[in-house]
Amino acid sequence: MDRIKKDYVFHRDLKKEYPIITHGEGVYLIDEDGKTYLDACSGAVAANLGHGIASIGDAMAEQAKKAAFVHTMRFETKALHKLAETIGKMTPDHLNRVYFTTGGSEANESALKLARQYHRDAGRQQKHIVIGRWQSYHGNTIGSLSAGGDVKRRHAYTPNLLNYAHVYSPYCHRCPYGRQKDDCLAKENLTCLTDIERTILELGPENVSAFIVEPIVGSQQGAVPPPPGYFEKVRELCDRYEIVLIIDEVMTGFGRTGTNFATEQLGIEPDIITFGKGVSAGYAPLAGMIVHDRLINGSFKTVTGNSYMAIHIVGILWQWQPV
């Protein structure tokens, strides 16, 4: 009697048998039976440079020969500084500080924590609530899942989720508010914007820490861009009520929308940009956040001209960074 092969992998779907991929070539994946698959989705929208690029593998191998890991509370490397500089020069003028993580979920968690730390150290102790949007995705860890609006992913974990608030994403084709796009634009009165302010006021501006949003709604709506003027008004609201604006570019960053970051097309500077996927094209678990100078310097300029004390961010968070 043949011995049943024991499987030690905890599969994403325990009832499914997956093909075993042996290698990839450009946009294709090849399994152990020689069958070729077109990787039309770039994995989880990550493999944007293609598979099997030898020069990338060689560079990774060379670095692996030098050092496996350094703890960034004690050491740094030239590779860390070089990558941070490269990314910093790709972003809007005042987003200059890059903090690395191992994935997009962790990048968004870090951004939410930094927003809270920023307010807390500035004396705004009550600011802790995050506002996200329904039909959005920011990751599958508890904090990022709480901020996101993917109902099917949230459902099983509802008792564990944080008490974050949500508004609807702008989706003019099937407006969740029952409005018509032409009417909204003609009257310069977008309900998806007025609902954000209503939510802030209901929660109390003194309690709201951050607003996290995708520049283009990705997996939950299928690449839906915002209506004209949406993000300019979002920036104004965040300034008015001293709320940290986090733009989640895990999916859109690194050339996916025709510019380095989709933020460049929005006409604003967010307080934090989070990134992932495209930064390593799937060759390594790498992501992070890019932080505006005003958070580093500790002053939050609002439309009323208020500013706050300097903060110290050393040791706020510690995570893996590339060697």
Summarize the structure.
This protein is an alpha/beta fold and 323 residues long. Helix content is 29%, strand content 15%. It comes from Neobacillus pocheonensis.
Protein architecture, described:
There is one protein chain. This protein is α/β, with parallel strands linked by helices and 323 residues long. The protein is built from ten helices and ten strands. The radius of gyration is 21 Å and the shape is globular. The model is unreliable at 301-323 (pLDDT under 50). InterPro entries: Aminotrans_3, Aminotrans_3_PPA_site, PyrdxlP-dep_Trfase, PyrdxlP-dep_Trfase_major, PyrdxlP-dep_Trfase_small. This is Aminotransferase class III-fold pyridoxal phosphate-dependent enzyme. Belongs to the class-III pyridoxal-phosphate-dependent aminotransferase family. It comes from Neobacillus pocheonensis.
